[in-house]
Design goal:
Polyamine Oxidase, Chain A, domain 2; 434 residues; 14 helices; single chain; seven-stranded mixed β-sheet; binds flavin-adenine dinucleotide; 19 strands; FAD/NAD(P)-binding domain
Length: 434
Amino acid sequence: MSRKIVIVGAGVSGLTLAERLTSSGKDISVTVLEKEDSPGGLARTFERDGFLFDIGPHRFHTSDTDVNNYLLEILGDDHVTINRSSNVYMAGKYRSWPLTMKSVAGLPLPVLFRSFLDLFRSKSEVEHPTFADYVISKYGMNIYNYFFRGYTEKFTGCSADTLHIDWAEAGVNRAVIDKNVKADDLFSLLKSVLIPKTVSTTFYYPSYGGIQTFCKKQAQRIQNSGGRIIYGCRALGLETESGKVSGVKTADMGIIPADHVYWSAPVSILFPDAGFKFMDTLLCNIALSKQQNNHYQWCYFGQEDMLFSRLTVPRNFRSDTVPAKADSLIVEITLNNPEHRDNPDILKDRLIQQLESVDALRSSDIIFMDWRIVSQTYPLYDLDYRKRLSDLVLPNGLELTGRCGSFWYNNMDHSIGEALAISSGRTFSKDFWK
Ligand SMILES: Cc1cc2nc3c(=O)[nH]c(=O)nc-3n(C[C@H](O)[C@H](O)[C@H](O)COP(=O)(O)OP(=O)(O)OC[C@H]3O[C@@H](n4cnc5c(N)ncnc54)[C@H](O)[C@@H]3O)c2cc1C
């Protein structure tokens, strides 16, 4: 184990690694560099006037015992267990997600009939299947056209046949939340609707604050065990000597010496010419003076003409994320248009009108609309991304980790699992979606 360890990024992965290393009792110095002024990365929480807004819906759910034990060790008694309630908005109605018999029965008959026929159509083999090929072969052309194509193209801003098959394998099942529910092809989707299994759909959430509470607790432990977290410190790249890492270059603090670097900031900072692309998200956090009619925690919207891809209702995670009798909404919009980045307010009227059209709010109840741009929310899996990753030549003493560092479409539990494995010298399977 090297003596001077620098971890770039105080998101869930950097913090878990730092927390485990500092509490290991080994004679090492651990420094975390974070460009923001608080910990959490994508698992941060914005607070305004008593309203708490996470970056979209964030819940802890895992079937991994080590990760589960770690979550509970950090949260202690400061957690609540919540029943998941997610929806998808289809054919003009809110329907439970994953789909149930009741919600499917309400779909337009021609859609149901054509989807049923797709079950019996022969599947053509494609040599290098794309996202589109994969979904069509699994769910049939009808469901692909009805939901997946529109949702995916709106969400990613890319044509579905320019996306890697991993985007489907990682993303589609992710939305189902419980591994016991199989919905990875049309037949299992149908089976899960006709013969629903009783599954655990509960998840953990901190009992105060937002999801960031978990990261703040980790940061506290790191500092208590002698680790250092330097906020407001932007890493620019690495310093190397004879092919080995010797430090991290920063914007304001010069070079921070290091024997070993774990890099969880975007890999594109280290390899700017390698063509790694990320999506950015525009969040509109809306505070409302009265409770609205939204019964879900989060809901997906595939309609191409809708600006947003998902809505989240913080009150349905924990009622004290909003002041008494008030309500709020987190609206997620993928930032594909540079004009929206410079002046998101130009979307305001259209957004309100669309939210009213799906009965998500009454405009007269809006207290404020708070726009936030969150960069590098999702790695974008184009057709060559695996080759570009495997072509990278890393100096000795550098390890890429976390969602943006290893360009890996993971969740918090995967970031935690990977960090636990690294800190205890185990290997961690990254192809978790296989
Ligand atoms: C909308 C949305 C909803 C999600 N919902 C869930 C969910 O319900 N459940 C779940 O488990 N997961 C969810 N996730 C995924 C989860 O947020 C991530 O998997 C996890 O937070 C990634 O942690 P990380 O540490 O790997 O990466 P990050 O959180 O990206 O951490 C990287 C850190 O590096 C810092 N950084 C970047 N550049 C620099 C630099 N140059 N110098 C120094 N520091 C830098 C960043 O500020 C950040 O703190 C969701 C993600 C999104 C976007």
